[in-house]
Description:
- By secondary structure, the chain is of the alpha/beta class.
- It is built from 9 helices and 7 strands.
- It has a 7-stranded parallel beta sheet with strand order 3-2-1-4-5-6-7, sandwiched between helices.
- The two termini are 17 Å apart.
Amino acid sequence: MIVLxxxxxxxxxxxxxxALADAGHTVYAGMRDLAGRNAGPAAxxxxxxxxxxxxxxxxxxxxxxxxxxxxxxxxxxxxxIHNAGHMVTGPAEAFTPQQLLDLYDTNVVGTQxxxxxxxxxxxAQGDGLVVxxxxxxxxxxxxxxxxxxxxxxAGMDALAASYALELTRFGIETTIVVPxxxxxxxxxxxxxxxxxxxxxxxxxxxxxxxxxxxxxxxxAELEPEWSDxxxxxxxxxxxxxxxxxxxxxRASYDPSDDGAIVVNAVADRxxxxxxxxxxxxxxxxxxx
Length: 288
């Protein structure tokens, strides 16, 4: 299959792009700033057999150009993977409104830019798969000092759930992949953003001194030794390789078991039951 994945320079994106290529798919690894900060990852991806494409989800023109590049070279696009994202850590009050806007722009609005570029292609084909890389934080245990990131991932999850229903009659499937918290194997925590209002941060330190370190330590303690971040990539490969019509709406890998699998199962069941009640159960499965 022809795959385009955003945020493929590191973390889940890099692992998934390579795993899909190893499974025999043609993978376009979307990264921003190929001539600058991501020149190294781009070279490594090319050496690994990936086709690197400039993709900045904060830019409509970049999203459109990336899709045009793929379709121009391959004549189609089979799988779109929303993976690009950014994490921030710190007391919620200490983030400026602009920081929240920037975070939502990357984690939520960026998927909309890419969808508006790619979905016309998938709709015209009457076929395709959209994979959203979410987070167990949307419905699992949510420790403090991660609120802006959690809220953004929840927004993306809600958008994905509605998109899924609006795409099925075009023959397009949706899967939300839900990774748990990983304290190693990705650079989420290492590269996380910080609040701009240092005065507010200092105020919170008087009551919550060292809280983020405590959260990180406790999350690390919850993570079992057998936890493997590469399993997220393998899970995505299994979704892509599953026969159309049999792919799951949601697939999770959460070694720390923060409760999201249980809550998501209930929420997704209620969603399905409600659609049956209003006579729209056909939207739960794509048109073949």
